[in-house]
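Researcher: Structure prediction, please.
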Amino acid sequence: MAEIYTVRLFGDPVLRKRALKVTDFSEIPRLAENMLETMFEARGVGLAAPQVGLSQRLFVWAEYLDSEEDEEEGEDADLRTRVRETHVMVNPVITFREGQQVGTEGCLSIPGLYSENVPRDLRVRVEYQDERGEPKVYEAEGYSAVVIQHELDHLDGVLYFERLPKELKAQWLEDNREDLARFQKQAKAFLKELKAKG
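Model: Predicted structure follows.
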């Protein structure tokens, strides 16, 4: 039975650290499975290890089938039924980038907030290891490329709004100041609770 993790919120220091390279793969298959379940539960497209409190260079993501019934299904629909493919990327490195695109991004660690105009590369090639440590290469374009770049940023302690041009970033922070302060407060309370549990 998979374990559902608590997704760490903006304000948690683990989201700002550069994650460590994975060298021991013995626990990675189980961790990846739990992360995928956590991602489905939170209705996400990707999830990086720092978002569940682990400073490791690993993220998971899923490609979903487009569903005509999306609008009718609403929030209760089980995302697992729409998965085309899941990916586990350990120690990923982008080795090729090409083109540019701008789009809207959100993040499970900053729930409910989005930003348009986030600049990303249009095409990327990523070299990584799978959950068993086998070397792999994946080429992505468009939306998949965005997901990979967004999740890889998490491994370097970078959040999507920091990719915005300077003026837009300042405006975004100002517009969302109250929500961000609330997340910081929740993150602090959660860490205090964790510490108390010992």
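Model: The chain has five helices and five strands.
Researcher: Thanks, that helps.
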